[in-house]
Design brief:
This protein has helices at residues 13-16, 52-59, 101-107, 115-119, 121-126, 130-149, 172-179, 204-218, and strands at residues 22-23, 46-49, 74-78, 88-92, 156-157, 165-169, 185-188, 193-197. It is of the alpha/beta class. Strand 2, helix 2 (52-59) and strand 3 form a beta-alpha-beta unit. Helix 2 (52-59) crosses helix 6 (130-149). It starts with 12 loop residues before the first helix and ends with a helix.
Length: 219
């Protein structure tokens, strides 16, 4: 099971945004902001939408409801982590913030010579709700992974599973042998907390194999 594949993201939001804080519909612990008013900012605000589709699928609301309608001025709309080969779109809801964008984009090496081929992926991504099907599948796989992990008493899930991420504290000694077979991040070295991500192409069989190995390592 490839819990999370390393990907090269077109991190368009990292060079452009200069507000005090960036807002994300999912925080770094995998939780989803349900109080939509929390995204409203007084100064220009940004939203990191790397996994925005997973949040929208979990919340059952439109993208606009927790971005533009919440006062977000600039949104980095992610596609790479939900099935696209590569590609992130930067959306400006406040036109006054994009005057220098064409220069910043080139200076930060975010301008591809064949950008139209990157952009074309979004046509298929939004057609027939492909984005939603991919995100919903990933979220569902995370729930299945959660259920399997909860059957292992030596592993403790630390965060409520609301999208496609499972955070858990595992015995320190199993991390290295587990990483030899599956890629994942250690979230907190001190507590041995790890982060397992499911994706659009994760299968139930892969989850069974993954948890079977954990059971073997802790026994």
């Amino acid at each position: 099971m490839n819990v999370e594949r390393p990907r090269n993201l077109q991190g368009a939001s990292c060079w452009l945004l200069k507000p005090p804080t960036g807002k994300s519909p999912r925080n770094q612990s995998g939780r989803i902001f349900t109080d939509l008013t929390s995204n409203i900012t007084r100064s220009p605000g940004s939203s990191d939408g790397a996994r925005i589709s997973n949040a929208a699928a979990a919340l059952g609301i439109s993208f606009r409801e927790f971005t533009r309608d919440c006062g977000v001025d600039v949104l980095s709309f992610g596609g790479t982590k939900n099935g696209m080969m590569s590609g992130e779109a930067v959306l400006f809801f406040n036109p006054g913030l994009c005057r220098e964008t064409k220069y910043l984009r080139k200076q930060s090496m975010q301008l591809f010579s064949k950008m139209r081929f990157i952009s074309a992926q979004f046509l298929a991504y939004f057609r027939d709700d492909l984005w939603k099907n991919n995100a919903s599948h990933a979220n569902q796989m995370a729930k299945i992974l959660e259920a399997e992990i909860r059957r292992i008493p030596q592993v403790r899930i630390t965060q409520k599973v609301e999208a496609n991420g499972v955070f858990a504290i595992v015995p320190r000694e199993i991390i290295r042998p587990l990483q030899e077979e599956y890629f994942f991040y250690v979230w907190d070295e001190l507590t041995s907390e790890v982060r397992w991500m499911t994706s659009f192409d994760t299968t139930e069989e892969e989850i069974r194999d993954f948890t079977r190995l954990i059971k073997k390592l802790v026994s």
